[in-house]
């Protein structure tokens, strides 16, 4: 069975004091959860302090972005090695907000995935269609292009740690979750695509997260779907209680499934 992951994407929220407080609340509340991989992704400025707070805990630390070079004259950018040095184990790559507002493309996503893996970070690669693309029947065409473009030329061994998050753009921050069936449908297609591109074992073992208005009251339906292995949570990850409710519900379901 694939171990579920619940990852919080804090976006551009929480200064360093708020971040340490929230991380501490989460750490205390989930200290005994073993069957869910928990990750939080605060803004860059919080990573160092939060990283220290999470030392020796079962909560992993991730960044929301990185550059693809290790160092150099790239004003304003942060390298994967720098993220590693403050305790990051993960990095979100190609979030739709980065694609939409900061010009990221499948090509830059590919470069960033490579840089992340070369530095030993686990990439959480985001894909997903806009409302217009969904309504014109292009969901899979878009997701296929993002996956084949972003992973072009990498072997399955190289991508061993890769996590993919399917986040329909129309469901992010809108309160509109894809129904669990809609999400499952795309997740199953993604797994099929991975099986076309790589050996079956790679596709079967890949963890596919759903993101887009995940809340404590819809996580169970989502997690009950066969190909959904966790969530990338934005708004609901900004409060300790809501986020840890999501983690605990996931943990409970996973324990039941295993029995
Ligand atoms: P949301 O964001 O949960 O607020 O919809 C998810 C994301 O953007 O990763």
Write out key terms for the chains shown.
alpha/beta, 15% strand, 259 residues, binds 2-phosphoglycolic acid, 8-stranded parallel barrel, 8 strands, 11 helices
Task: Describe the structure concisely.
With 259 residues, this protein is α/β, with parallel strands linked by helices. It has helices at 16-29, 44-53, 80-85, 96-101, 106-118, 131-135, 139-150, 180-197, 200-205, 219-223, 240-258; strands at residues 5-9, 37-41, 59-63, 90-93, 122-127, 163-166, 207-211, 230-233.
**Oligomeric description of these chains:** single chain
**Strand order, biggest sheet?**
1-2-3-4-5-6-7-8
Structural class: alpha/beta
User: Roughly what fraction of the amino acids lie in strands?
Assistant: 5-15%
The geometry reads as: globular
Roughly how many Å is the radius of gyration?
17 Å
What is the typical, i.e. mean, pLDDT? Answer: 97
Identify low-pLDDT runs: none
What small molecules does the structure contain?
A: 2-phosphoglycolic acid
> What share of the residues lie within helices?
40-55%
Largest sheet: 8 strands, parallel, barrel
Order of H and E elements = EHEHEHEHHEHHEHHEHEH
The number of strands is 8
Distance from N terminus to C terminus (CA atoms, Å) equals 12 Å
Number of helical stretches of at least 4 residues: 11
